[in-house]
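Practice problem 4.
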């Protein structure tokens, strides 16, 4: 109910701005959308001075004063940071893009911004522009770069306080939205001017004001229009947990595949925009020392398959360590996924989602006349395909061994020996034209 109300309020506040016009994506955006969907797999990176505390990216919200927290910046010197090594490891996983946290809710900027001194160049001894190094490394490895940008700022006094980050010592009587809005737009302009093509801006934090008594006007549309003016091919996504607003080019889901809501952050309608689900490898986004509970490679492959079956991308997160390295377990998972995608990538990249709902045995992806059945339940011996799926032949994807098919009045039944205990046993069905 709260969500519904918030949706209505958000829609109203959008319409209250001058740019309420219906959004028509440009040809450049449409091309990026296509390319983005075909990629199917990206890596999210949450890295900032919060990594130093080893307690995730929300540490500043846990009762620390912003001035105490800021002291971590003075010690931020990640000796082992090497953007090329990150990019190589990520490329090796089969991921096709990286989404990096340029500035998280703590307000610390990871690039050479001129809009605030609270940044990697001015506030740390490291003095290296992380976004510059990362954008160069991405270009070398032919990875697309997306930038996460928080609408929230738990440190700046001009940010109108919402429902989070209330104990950081900011003056509760002062705020200056116009100043803060200008600051954000100036920062976004830098990001979209100085680092080459940015394929997407990934916003987060609108939910900070979802309990306001008077609807909060984020003035998103003029901000989105500015982004599209600066880089016409740049996609805009916003992790607001509700149905996309005018001006957005992708729809984001957090922790759940589209249509599911186990984490309590989703449940919104699925739009016709390209979809992306972000998910953690362990349980937290930013580096959290006590959280070593990583999902297995098999689980991650199955989650990728599931999202692809729903026609969505998977944005899988890593929280690099304070020394700048990716955690060894994360590297292991990247390798594992890369090995799998090297062999099976054509059943994932460039595919559409399944023509039928997820089944107890798994799901499907499709590329033209090729329908890939992803059997993630070992021991499966029979698969029923609905009658609108006209089967010409079926074979095991890896060995090309034919699979017995039998037509019934309810569709086609595939018979096979109990499928092996692998992350995903794939059968390729060739459809009749
Ligand atoms: C949530 C969290 C944020 C994280 C994001 C990633 O919005 O507040 O910390 O960056 O999810 O999906």
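Answer key:
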């Amino acid at each position: 109910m709260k969500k519904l109300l918030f949706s209505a309020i958000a829609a109203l506040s959008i319409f209250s701005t001058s740019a309420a016009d219906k959004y028509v994506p440009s040809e450049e955006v449409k091309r990026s959308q296509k390319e983005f969907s075909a990629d199917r797999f990206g890596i999210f990176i949450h890295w900032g001075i919060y990594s130093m505390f080893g307690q995730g990216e929300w540490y500043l919200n846990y009762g620390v004063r912003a001035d105490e927290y800021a002291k971590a910046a003075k010690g931020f010197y990640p000796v082992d940071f090497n953007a090329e090594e990150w990019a190589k490891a990520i490329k090796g996983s089969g991921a096709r893009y990286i989404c990096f946290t340029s500035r998280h809710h703590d307000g610390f900027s990871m690039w050479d911004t001129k809009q605030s001194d609270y940044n990697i160049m001015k506030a740390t001894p490291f003095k290296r522009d992380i976004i510059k190094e990362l954008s160069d490394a991405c270009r070398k490895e032919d990875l697309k770069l997306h930038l996460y940008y928080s609408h929230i700022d738990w440190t700046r006094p001009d940010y109108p306080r919402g429902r989070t980050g209330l104990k950081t010592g900011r003056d509760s009587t002062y705020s200056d939205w116009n100043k803060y809005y200008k600051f954000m737009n100036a920062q976004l302009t830098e990001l979209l001017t100085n680092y080459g093509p940015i394929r997407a801006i990934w916003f987060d934090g609108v939910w900070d004001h979802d309990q306001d008594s008077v609807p909060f006007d984020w003035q998103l549309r003029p901000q989105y229009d500015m982004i599209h003016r600066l880089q016409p091919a740049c996609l805009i996504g916003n992790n607001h947990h509700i149905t996309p607003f005018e001006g957005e080019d992708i729809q984001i889901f957090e922790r759940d595949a589209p249509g599911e809501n186990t984490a309590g952050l989703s449940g919104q309608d699925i739009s016709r925009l390209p979809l992306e689900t972000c998910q953690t490898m362990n349980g937290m986004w930013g580096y959290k020392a006590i959280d070593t509970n990583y999902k297995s490679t098999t689980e991650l492959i199955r989650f990728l398959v599931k999202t692809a079956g729903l026609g969505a991308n998977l944005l899988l997160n890593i929280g690099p360590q304070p020394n700048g390295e990716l955690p060894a377990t994360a590297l292991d998972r990247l390798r594992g996924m890369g090995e799998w995608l090297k062999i099976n990538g054509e059943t994932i990249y460039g595919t559409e989602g399944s023509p039928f709902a997820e089944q107890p045995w798994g799901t499907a992806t499709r590329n033209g006349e090729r329908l890939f059945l992803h059997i993630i339940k070992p021991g499966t011996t029979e698969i029923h395909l609905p009658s609108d799926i006209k089967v010409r032949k079926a074979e095991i994807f890896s060995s090309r061994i034919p699979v017995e098919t039998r037509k019934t009045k309810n569709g086609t039944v595939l018979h096979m020996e109990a499928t092996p205990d692998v992350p995903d046993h794939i059968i390729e069905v060739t459809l009749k034209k």
